[in-house]
Amino acid sequence: MPRLDPRHYEPARVPYEVRRHAGTPDTLAVGRPGKVGLLELAFDKVGRRTELTGHYQKSPLQIMRPLYFDPARPDLAVTFLLSTGGGILQADRLRTDVRCGADTAVHLTTQAATKVYRMEFDYATQLLHLDAGPGAYVEYLPEPVIPFVDSRFYQRTVLTVDPGATVLLGETVLAGRLARGERNAYRVFASDLEVRRPDGELVAVDTVRLEPPGPGGGVGGAGVTGPAVLAGHDVMSSLYVLSPLAPAARIADALHDALADRGLLHGVSVLPQDSGAWLRLLGSDTRACAAALRAAWDAVRRLLIGAPAPDLRKT
Predict the structure, then answer these.
(1) Strands (E), 135-248
(2) Which pTM does this prediction carry?
(3) 126-155, pLDDT tens digit by residue?
(4) Residue 63, class by beta-carbon neighbours within 10 Å (0-12 exposed, 13-18 middle, 19+ buried)?
């Protein structure tokens, strides 16, 4: 299918909570120059380290060349995902495809937080398809998503993970621009995660729907701050760990122990088929939540590959 065919960059299904905001912008519409961002990456093991062997990018999505600075894993290709647009705008359609071949070691992250700007017409979407081959070790740990007032955003992530591969996936969403007093003033934030095996077998699904009521999302966001949702907290983080390198119960214990003394509301459970474990935490201090997520990442790394989390030094 051609890359610029809408069937390639548009989600096959957009949740009703987002789709109901569809419209024709008075600025650049869907499909116009700069509105469709595409990124395709392929990694393969070459000699003793992982190399980028395939690369296609269409603005606003791009990357820095892979770096190798993890002293405990010199084979690890650390790749920063960038955007020339500074954030996500209405009618943006973004898609990223990453293939990590057999026995590769890849760390993917974003250079900064993803800002989802105010939208008066339509919505924005972001797709991620990540394939991990046999023996691959892949970390996808982006910086937080910050939905601005009146934004409408849907992201869909599909992981295709070989039974012999390890994948760590992180996701953090803030309630808004907290320093400006914006809390849950967006229209809707929706996120879907699917984990599948190469034969298409479904392993796990996680769905998030945050839709504050009223015009402008309803400053204060009463519809998402209740005890069954965010319980008044401003940060929600998740870490999914799929790996055959340790029993799922041991992975869950490592995640739980990493957060046990941090005073944050959190929960840990194993994933189906003993395929791994996952963590979700809530908090109101962005630094404390970031430190907790890093501690969980570090604990899982030490358990699975015997190496601590490296210092990425983004600031």
Answers:
(1) 137-140, 145-147, 152-161, 166-174, 188-196, 202-210, 235-242
(2) 0.94
(3) 999 999 999 999 999 999 999 999 999 999
(4) middle
